[in-house]
Amino acid sequence: MGIEKLTSDEIADSWQGQFLIKKETCFSKGLHLPQIGALH
User: Fold this and answer.
1) 39, 21 Cβ separation under 8 angstroms
2) CB of 30 within 8 A of CB of 24?
3) What is d(CA 36, CA 40) in angstroms, rounded to the nearest whole number?
4) I need a surface site. Which of 8, 13, 26, 39 has the fewest CB within 10 A?
5) Model confidence over 1-40: pLDDT tens digits?
């Protein structure tokens, strides 16, 4: 079994739509702005 080599663009494209980042508000739990910035 070989390892498929992907370019950074192919990897980024494969991640499209796979994550939902929610900002915390007083009504719902989520990430604070510094945490969202760190993920970006």
Assistant:
1) yes
2) yes
3) 6
4) 26
5) 688 899 999 998 998 989 887 888 888 888 888 888 887 6
The tokens describing 19, both together, are 């994550």
The vertex-18 CA angle with 26 and 7, nearest 5°, equals 135
Phi, psi of 6 (to 5 degrees): -115, 150
Tokens of 9: 């663009």
CB 24 within 8 Å of CB 32: yes
What is the 3-class SS of 1-40, one letter each residue? CCCCCCCHHHHHHHHCCCCCCCECCCCCCCECHHHHHHHC
